[in-house]
Amino acid sequence: MPWLVVLVLVVAVVPVTAQVPYERILDAASEPEHWLTYSGTYGAQRYSTLDQISRDNVERLQPAWVYQARSTQKFEVSPLVVDGVMYITEAPSDATALDLRTGRPIWSYRRSLPQGIVTCCGQVNRGVALLDDQVFLGTVDAHLVALDARTGRVRWDVEVADYTQGYAVTVAPLALRDKIIVGIAGGEYGIRGFLDAYDPTTGERLWRFWTVPGPGEPGHDTWSGDSWERGGAPTWVTGAYDPELDLLYWGTGNPGPDFIGEVRRGDNLYSESLIALDPDTGELVWYFQFLPHDIHDYDSTQVPVLLDAELGGTPRKLVLFPNRNGFYYVLDRVTGEFLVGTPFARQTWALGLDDTGRPIENAETIPSVDGALVYPDDDGAANWYSPTYSPQTNLIYQNVREKGGIYYLADATYEPGKIYMGASRRVVAGEDPRGFLRALNPLTGDLVWELPVHSPPWAGLMSTAGGLVFSGTMEGDFFAADARTGDVLWRFQTGGAVYANPITYLSEGRQFIAIAAGSALFTFALPE
Amino acid sequence: MLGPSAVVVLAVFVVLAAPPVVVAQPADIEQGQRLYESLCGSCHGPQGNGGRGANLAQPRLRRASDDQALFNIIRRGIRGTEMPGSPLTPIQVSSIAAYVKTLGRVAPEDIPGDGRRGAAVYAGLDCARCHTVRGRGGIVGPDLDDIGARRSAAHLREALLDPEVSVPTGFLLLRVVTRDGRVLSGVRVNEDGFSIQFRDLTGRLHSFWKTELDTLEQQWQRSPMGSYAGRLTTEQTDDLVAYLVSLKGAR
């Protein structure tokens, strides 16, 4: 057929425009065949109602296709899937669209980076956000880039902060109705943290919430002297959103310098907190500070999990928060009221929590010149990797790290773009660090079951209506456990450590599971 | 003792003080040409006429207004774009820069048309059905957002009047018949031994296993864009070319 005829036919067809309007993300639970936002839904339970792959047949799960990334940096991506395409990021700051059917690339955006980028823990990226017909990518040179979702062409590219000062963007942005929310990394470099909102169309910054209050602002007096200028409190893990309350929830990281409290006396608001913001204005509605005046680098940058449940006979809107510091927290997400706080991992830094949730610190664990042993170490009992809540089992699942560290106080002199931490870490001689997948009662934090997974893991979790929890290990195993019991029902050796969150989706009606491991992205499905 | 910060300061000084000199010795230019052809030509064109990268065969380079800027771009790349930095020595970079300068020894192009009227011609022809400018438009044809930085007026005029003489590198029109009898036409996105991905002329993405196809016809050097020779007056063509030349991208 001559192409002219085709052209004539084409004119009658409405061109494809907005792919992922806000309404689709809002209602993401109604289309489990796609994965539209970082944690699956705004409520961030990382639970899928897909059940083709189940306890009964998961043992037959097999690889479908594998995509090899160029970078050998940690591959921390949480992919998004919509309308036949998977959108991933590759370290350091690249984005790629893959054909869902074959795993073949449709486009790649490869970003040339300047020299001299500093990131404490690898030049990594955890994924993109989608809104309408654009893909949003944060970069380690601290820019936010909007790409045409069809082609990967740059629509706009704006500076979030000055990378030479230690700022970087590694977080997957969060798309709301008419805003792209972006957090910042750099808590080891004496940055002053913030959370930003950008106009998806123009890239204009709509608001900035400083997580370290400036002079005259409430909370500023929780920093001695001028320490607030280097106060840290980064925002490098994607938060959650409650559309009914219209509140944005985001965790904040350590105050700077990480291990020296003397130079920043006070509670150091809003470091180590969960903040609830009005997404229209960026104004603070409430905050809960898990750890005032942290000196252990226990960033409270975990994914907040939203749950509506009855607690003490009253229906409540809750937020669940298994914290890097080893305590499991339940807060009222309307008010920020502290409801539950209980250890879910070995910890020695606190003797307990008081009635308001404020920790009673164990002075013996404060970093010192002679060295102080503390559990967990500064990698935490949990970290950025995602927990999951399954409504089917009514359990929350968390990968847990049990590993101590001995902290020797050191000097820290602030210089822009230089490490500003104030201690060196030594391992505990003769210790064999341990890792677990733990299932907790979401309302109490009590342990229901646990699965030892050898080394302390860096993998996120996903639960499904097939009665399964998916996870990975540092030794390269990707596996499915029975969500009720923790029995391992299927596993696959990927050949590379898992530093990523799993997702699931349908392609041509079949359920797939995807996970990044080593330098590759794997997909799995049942035999046809 | 030299502290770590002093070392960094020194390193920064060394980078900044690297010789930016563009030495126009004939030997340098020959070496520069060899390096250019192996490293730069695939994007900037063998004669510097542009393509995926900027058109370098013009007297004034937009991003490299002087020798120092040209040296820095070849050395460090352009942040946020596909233009990479290079691990070359300063002398090699200087020799490439010297060669690139010879590419620009051409007279400025005569562009007789009116770009504003050309924008109206562009709209009237519905070019946006297949081409994108500033994020708006179709994606079957090449993105034109910065076409004026990447291509000369002469090239653009030729592309309008005789599109199939200058089909972009890698652009492949396909005609596909599926085993269940559907006939599709589109532009290839990717292909391997067992599968092919393409966009039909509405921009919709298709992915097929080759076993699902009866016919897979590759139409190299074919363009779905018809010639505008005879469809536009000389003045309209001039105006449209002037409009396209004015498209330099957002940044």
Outline the structure in words.
The complex is a heterodimer of chains A (528) and B (251). By secondary structure, chain A is mainly β. Chain A has helices at residues 3-11, 22-26; strands at residues 47-48, 62-68, 80-82, 85-90, 94-99, 105-109, 129-131, 134-138, 143-148, 154-159, 174-175, 180-183, 194-198, 205-210, 240-242, 247-251, 273-278, 283-289, 305-311, 314-322, 327-332, 338-343, 350-353, 359-361, 372-374, 388-390, 395-402, 405-409, 423-426, 434-440, 447-452, 462-464, 468-472, 477-482, 488-493, 503-507, 510-517, 520-525. The longest helix of chain A is centred in the N-terminal third of the chain and has 9 residues, at 3-11. Chain B has nine helices and seven strands. A five-stranded antiparallel β-sheet of chain B has the order 6-5-4-3-7, with no helix packed on it. Chain B is globular. Mean pLDDT of chain B is 87; it is low at 1-19. Classes of the chains: A mainly beta (528), B alpha+beta (251).
Into which percentage range does the β-strand content of chain B fall?
Answer: 5-15%
Largest interface: A-B, 39 and 42 residues
User: Can you tell me the CATH architecture of the largest domain in chain B?
Assistant: Orthogonal Bundle
Count the beta strands of chain B: 7
Q: In one word, what is the shape of chain A? A: globular
What's the name of the CATH homologous superfamily of the largest domain in chain B?
Answer: Cytochrome c-like domain
Secondary structure class of chain A reads: mainly beta
- Terminal-residue CA separation of chain A: 35 Å
- Major sheet characteristics of chain A: 5 strands, mixed
Residue share in helices of chain B? 25-40%
Number of domains of chain B: 3
Percent in helix of chain A: under 10%
Uncertain regions spanning at least 5 consecutive residues of chain B: 1-19
